[in-house]
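Observation: inputs received (chain + magnesium ion).
Thought: call the complex predictor directly.
Action: predict_structure
Action Input:
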Amino acid sequence: MSETPEERRDFIRDMIKSDLANGKVAELVTRFPPEPNGYLHIGHAKSICLNFGVAQEFGGRCNLRFDDTNPTKEEQEYIDAIQEDVRWLGFDWDGEPKFASDYFETFYGYAIHLIEAGKAYVDDLSPDEIREYRGTLTQPGRESPYRNRTVAENLDLLARMRNGEFKAGEKCLRAKIDMASGNINLRDPVLYRILHAHHPRTGDTWCIYPTYDFAHGQGDAIEGVTHSLCTLEFEDHRPLYDWFIENLPVPSRPRQTEFSRLNMTYLALSKRKLIQLVKDGHVRGWDDPRMPTLRGLRRRGVPAAALRDFCGRIGLTKSDNTIEYPMLEHCIREELNKTAQRRMAVLEPLKVTITNYPEGQSETLDAVNNPEDPDGGTRQVPFSRTLYIEQADFMEDPPKKFFRLAPGREVRLRWAYFITCQDVVKNDAGEVVELLCTYDPATKGGDAPDGRKVKGTLHWVSAEHAVSAEVRVYDHLYTRPDPGADGDPIDDLNPDSLSVIADAKLEPSLSEIPVGETVQFERQGYYCVDPDGTADKMVFNRTTGLRDSWAKAQKNG
Ligand code: ATP
Ligand code: MG
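Observation:
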């Protein structure tokens, strides 16, 4: 059902195909341009899969370029993490990572070029005044009184800006385009602003920094990027992007094309909002499994392959849309169903004593690791007189359709034996705390030689062999599919997004599953080993449940 990359078609791939076919470009070069001011999220995954994906599909190259033009918000920690996350997602960039800051000297030369051509000027208006002079969508802007400075004066002031003679906001360099343009981005955009800030890479060399618009397209051109793929909010910047390319002595002519950002129900995909969740302690960190960051998804147990599959399926469009969160879960299940080992884990234990099984005795039974994987092999599961089953798998007074355990009923224990509930033990409060059952030794492995059938198969673990675990179960971080629709998304946070099962009982082989691996707890869902675990107590994160509401809705719809 999922398309292979070769079959994938969308307006960007069509464009690339034709550009290559008619010789407009000889080799495809793309780039992924994160600003190192936070961790990557699932929205970035869409851009990564697109940029690196088309490079792979069309035999081209994709650069990783950090857009590090705003030193007040950028940190080395993010630069490192972004590289790690791109690799985790399964991609690698051409050569060394690139940085906009590598080109600061070239950009400065471009600024001088514009001044000399009479196409840029140093402005003394304050940032507030510049905003006010800019006008609105319906009203043209007004020209700055400093707009007609001479070339010599502009060159001198720019050099003095660079030398640190002015305070932040006192001066800036602007392109001289058209204050009456219908496109506000062309109303003399700012090219350089003064920022007395230490830069993670250039240190204190610079106290003026290029704006995104002045750095981005020129970075593309310097690197020979042929297709600069970015999200729709930059569509209105494209005339400016082209203006720079036309008016500067750049070594190549990249072309910008826009596609829709990824929006998803129940998520707020913006680094600013994610930073707030972390800084204000609403989550445990950037890699909290509830976070839509790549680190959060990874810690939750989402395989990179599932994310790549997801990014392929959502497709590329020219207009904004919102993807239903369950579609992501569907991709996760499809991947994990193929790859995850099956194990038994009892989350809400109820003690079961097999009264006709000898005390002190135990045995091991063969269990299949993954019925979907013929090479998955088997493992040994210990069985003994005292077991745990799930509380929800027993009812003292069951309704007709309940096929699990009840007084007098016989069920199968997965990979083991048929057992029959003979009696229940209750505490003073009248709650069932133990079941007394008998087993049929002839049903070893799960089938009765006399052909008798049972309707239920339960998972279980042997009490004395069980491993203890904390299990963290997650719900949406927000209570509504459109967080923030009525104001601040923080007001829509779900107070029950994390619930903790303190003492689940697991089959012992789970202790050998390494941190970061996701397994299926049979009949429950997918769970990933968390690094918070200790020698005494493992910790698991629930990745997702087994029920696929999305696939069902697709079928019925
Ligand atoms: P945010 O809005 O989350 O802060 P950003 O766009 O400021 O994101 P950048 O680091 O500038 O983050 O993004 C790097 C690249 O990832 C850009 O090309 C950007 O268009 C793309 N990108 C960011 N968010 C999304 C998204 N939700 N869907 C698709 N692409 C995205
Ligand atoms: Mg950005």
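Thought: report the result.
Final Answer: Residues 271-341+469-556 form a domain with the Ribosomal Protein L25; Chain P fold (CATH 2.40.240.10). The first strand starts at residue 29 and ends at 32.
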